């Protein structure tokens, strides 16, 4: 009898770059249970999304200005060059792939296969179990496991001789990732990447985990030991493993079913919204802001819900509290080390409760959602601080994550080679500073300041730079940040200026000079790996960000960049003949856009996020081609993914027999659920087009998720916003005037400056006559 003893000491968020150590023991029935736990950078337990509640934290601190570099929003990223090793000892078939993650494993001593029929047929032909390893190119612990285990000759031989080894990029195939992550979470209570799952030749999972150290560490079995025990059990106890896999898949099919009962209506929006707010407020921490304790993730979906909740409850204490929670969280993140104060943009998450020491990868989907959250905070509060942060994010994306074609790259890695050199990459090496480096590059004396104050003195005081470094030992268990400083704003501009006896104007001048010079130093450091894969879904999110920020600020450059992104999606990720979206495309060696053959067909989130982005682009530019394409995509989404029996959308369409579960995503996490976004899309499109079937589909979708919305709405805050939009009556603003006239533009700017969250058609403008504009919204 096989006994599985799994214990995850902690798990990273399902979109974060770092996985916590996991241990597994495969023991005889009479053997003792063994488990393992291992510290990483200060992580605590992250519950399975179906078993816990999201949490939120905040901390008040003095306001400080954000200083922006010159905004050249249409500049494009050049990327980083990573020349391959000369004459690699091993080369496997992953060398023929385009995924940056798969290419990172192309020279492992492992006989890797990409996900596909060649691997499946080999497993059946040779009657071998499958080892499926899932990750993505900017995942820190994926790098660690590759370096420790997949580059190990002995482990590589064991894997190649006894398993059919498949490497999967979860960003390319989220449908496959969701199936096996559901299995890992259901059998353990948590999950993360790298994900390690063992399958029967017919793809049914029987053992799963995340990161494994290569060798035994005390009572924690290493990867080699785990492999040997699985081989023994496959040889001696195969029937049990296969029946276990069969039973688990059958149970997951039943347990993951989301369906509406015949005639069921969506739950009452005010009740659901109040419960969602109470669940967030219960986990709110008043000092620093954010959701739950360390590790702390931005979760923009929660922030957007809180601001929307305030908009209809602004006269109540609950509404005021909701707004304070959102604005304070956004402010503290902007002041913290999770925000890159030199090169703009936001890192993935904070390993501590004060937003100080981040996990340093930067993801496109974070930048997109945070830009929208910050511009919304500007609309709500009128504070320029928030608008500056939104522009700061888009400056980073334009410079470092933009392709010449108009598309957006997926991510920048957390790890890079230190400027001092060395064979190994280190997390945060591109971003952190020693006190001596700051002094070396900022020696200039500040005129008018007390004593012989230098640029370095002002910079170090304002950003909390210490001689011994400012990263606590518990935040740096591997010693990668010893003696280093992660910049975090410790004082307001006023306090720092007063401390050195200078004016605010002089302080701003000093900081602009200092930040610009430190940015130049960063540019000559070895850059982190850039994942140049371009995903339809994340490009859709980024399209929304440029369109919405551009509309609010009346910034034509940002709107032009949004149009570029829309043209990119249509040119490279849409097949008009087959009426299909593609999931991804890639930057070639000559900077051209490349596609694989056959392309990966788009999934639900590709359609939903692009439709949302196109609607935002239409509302920002009033160019009807974007609305027409959004209608076309929505109709295709309905045909591919809609559940005619139970309502709502499946994540993937049914033609791929290798995907064992048809799932409906039921959590708004690092990205919103595609069903949540679709509920809003359907409402907006029904208003644009008058098509009642789309309104009915939105209602059926919300009814399908009634149990989740009623019991734990905090898991679906974006869907709660869609439910609230169903509840509030639409109204219209009619602007009469010449389309190009300055007074018409002024009225449009005034409307765009307002936060009107539950509009089925935010800034929906239709030309009625040559001289009349109509804008619809809800209150």
From TrEMBL:
It holds the Pfam family Thioredox_DsbH. Residues 91-252 form the Spermatogenesis-associated protein 20-like TRX domain. GO terms for biological process: carbohydrate metabolic process. This is Spermatogenesis-associated protein 20-like TRX domain-containing protein.
């Amino acid at each position: 009898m096989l006994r599985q003893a799994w214990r995850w000491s902690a798990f990273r968020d399902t979109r974060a770059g770092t996985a916590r150590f996991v241990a597994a023991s495969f023991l005889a029935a009479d053997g003792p249970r063994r488990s393992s736990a291992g510290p990483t950078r200060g992580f605590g337990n992250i519950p399975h999304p179906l078993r816990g509640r999201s949490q939120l934290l905040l901390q008040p601190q003095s306001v400080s200005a954000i200083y922006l570099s010159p905004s050249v929003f249409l500049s494009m990223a050049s990327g980083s060059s990573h020349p391959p090793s000369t004459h690699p000892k091993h080369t496997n078939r992953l060398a023929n792939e385009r995924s940056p993650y798969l290419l990172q494993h192309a020279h492992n001593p492992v006989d890797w296969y990409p996900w596909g029929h060649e691997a499946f047929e080999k497993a059946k032909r040779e009657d071998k179990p499958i080892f499926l390893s899932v990750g993505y190119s900017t995942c820190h612990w994926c790098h660690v496991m590759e370096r420790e285990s997949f580059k190990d000759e002995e482990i590589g031989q064991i894997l190649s001789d006894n398993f059919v080894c498949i490497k999967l990029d979860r960003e390319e195939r989220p449908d496959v990732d969701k199936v096996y992550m559901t299995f890992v979470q259901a059998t353990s209570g948590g999950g993360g990447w790298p994900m390690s799952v063992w399958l029967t030749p017919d793809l049914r999972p029987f053992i799963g985990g995340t990161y494994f150290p290569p060798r035994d560490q005390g009572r924690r079995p290493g990867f080699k030991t785990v492999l040997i025990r699985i081989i023994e059990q496959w040889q001696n106890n195969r029937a049990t493993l296969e029946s276990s896999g069969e039973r688990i898949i059958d149970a997951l099919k039943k347990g993951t079913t989301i369906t509406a009962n015949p005639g069921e209506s969506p739950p009452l929006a005010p009740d659901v919204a109040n419960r969602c707010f109470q669940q967030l407020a219960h986990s709110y921490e008043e000092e620093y802001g954010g959701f739950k304790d360390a590790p702390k993730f931005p979760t923009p979906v929660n922030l957007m819900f809180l601001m929307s909740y305030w908009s209809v409850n602004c006269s109540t204490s609950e509404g005021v509290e909701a707004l304070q929670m959102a604005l304070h969280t956004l402010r503290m993140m902007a002041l913290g080390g999770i925000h890159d104060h030199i090169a703009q943009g936001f890192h993935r998450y904070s390993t501590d409760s004060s937003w100080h020491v981040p996990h340093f990868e930067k993801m496109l989907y974070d930048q997109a959602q945070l830009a929208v959250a910050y511009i919304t905070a500007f609309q709500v509060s009128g504070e320029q601080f928030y608008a500056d942060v939104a522009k700061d994010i888009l400056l980073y994306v334009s410079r470092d994550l933009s392709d010449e074609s108009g598309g957006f790259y997926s991510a920048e890695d957390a790890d890079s080679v230190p400027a001092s050199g060395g064979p190994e990459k280190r997390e945060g090496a591109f971003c952190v500073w020693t006190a001596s480096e700051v002094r070396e590059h900022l020696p200039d004396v500040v005129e008018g300041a007390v004593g012989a104050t230098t640029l370095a003195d002002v910079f170090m005081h304002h950003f909390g730079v210490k001689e011994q470094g400012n990263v606590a030992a518990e935040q740096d268990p591997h010693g990668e940040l010893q003696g280093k400083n992660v910049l975090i704003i410790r004082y307001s501009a006023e306090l720092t200026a007063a401390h050195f006896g200078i004016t605010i104007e002089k302080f701003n001048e000093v900081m602009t000079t200092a930040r610009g010079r430190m940015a130049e130093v960063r540019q000559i450091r070895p850059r982190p790996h850039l994942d140049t894969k371009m995903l339809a879904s994340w490009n859709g999110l980024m399209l929304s960000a440029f369109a919405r920020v551009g509309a609010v600020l009346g910034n034509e450059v940002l709107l032009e960049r949004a149009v570029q992104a829309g043209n990119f999606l249509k040119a490279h990720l849409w097949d008009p003949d087959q009426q299909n979206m593609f999931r991804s495309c890639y930057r070639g060696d000559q900077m051209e856009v490349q596609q694989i053959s056959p392309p990966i067909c788009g999934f639900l989130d590709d359609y939903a996020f692009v439709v949302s982005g196109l609607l935002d682009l239409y509302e920002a530019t009033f160019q009807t081609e974007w609305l027409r394409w959004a209608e076309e995509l929505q109709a295709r989404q309905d045909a591919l993914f809609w559940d005619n029996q139970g309502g709502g959308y499946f994540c993937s369409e049914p033609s791929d027999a290798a995907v064992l579960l048809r799932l409906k995503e039921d959590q708004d996490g690092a990205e919103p659920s595609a069903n949540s976004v679709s509920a809003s899309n359907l409402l907006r499109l029904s208003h644009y087009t008058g098509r009642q079937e789309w309104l009915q589909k939105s209602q059926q979708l919300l009814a399908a998720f009634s149990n989740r919305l009623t019991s734990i709405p905090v898991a679906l805050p974006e869907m709660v916003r869609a439910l609230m939009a169903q509840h509030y009556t639409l109204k219209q603003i009619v602007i009469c005037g010449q389309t190009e006239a300055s007074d018409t533009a002024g009225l449009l700017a005034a409307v765009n400056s307002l936060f009107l969250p539950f509009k089925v058609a935010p800034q929906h403008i239709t030309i009625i006559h040559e001289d009349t504009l109509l804008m619809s919204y809800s209150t």
